[in-house]
Design a protein that fits this description.
DNA-binding; 104 residues; homodimer; mainly alpha; 6 helices; globular
DNA sequence: ATTTCATATGAAAATATCTTCATATCACCT
DNA sequence: AGGTGATATGAAGATATTTTCATATGAAAT
């Protein structure tokens, strides 16, 4: 149980610790999209976006729905919104000038 | 600004996406400790724990206070508690049997 | 059943992250 | 100042994660 929570946290956080995947989440926050559209906007290969969508989906951070031959991805707002809110608040309070945190 | 939030998220989440660091956070949730104690309980080298404390500290996930020649680390409960709560709730709701998520 | 558009997958190469070891720094005491 | 316990740091080797390329699968239309 305890072990599992720690494992879960690791899986979840490592899924979120990737610029491409964060970019995907930010885009999906605005509007649902398919892989091709995400690839276009993010200016990356379709296969790369696809690879990155998988862990997001597996973790339940995004949902997917078929529409013809497309697969429309959307954000799990219930989880992601409060999560980002926490980060935002934390950053504001504890890293007032981002530089401090972003530097090595 | 936008760019910065994404960068911040990446930094924060990658800091949290490590079993050793999650272990440290779990221990500090119970009680403040110094590096040596953490190393003992986690059964790892002191230098390794020290290396891992750094990003946690830089991100403001933990605090540090000197006490003699020791440096006592403690958890930033304000941030970490709601963060873990979200993960827990999410896991419960979206990954009812952890296996689903934990498998490749 | 074949073509087309949309998406997913496997495996190798490229890149980033961790761990370890040796050593440096720091605070306190004598 | 020198010694000691506690902690931090640098750099390298060891591991893990990403990205890319080529190709496979899927769904719908002709």
């Amino acid at each position: 149980m305890k072990q599992n929570l720690s494992e879960t946290c690791h899986l979840f956080f490592s899924t979120l610790s990737n610029p491409t995947r964060l970019g995907i989440l930010e885009l999906l926050k605005e509007t649902p999209m398919n892989v091709t559209q995400l690839a276009e906007v993010l200016n990356q290969e379709q296969s790369m976006i696809s690879h990155n969508l998988r862990p997001l989906f597996r973790c339940g951070f995004i949902f997917a729905e078929r529409k013809g031959k497309e697969r429309i991805y959307s954000l799990n707002i219930e989880t992601m919104e409060p999560l980002f809110k926490i980060i935002e608040n934390h950053a504001e309070k504890y890293c007032p000038k981002m530089g401090k945190c972003l530097k090595h």
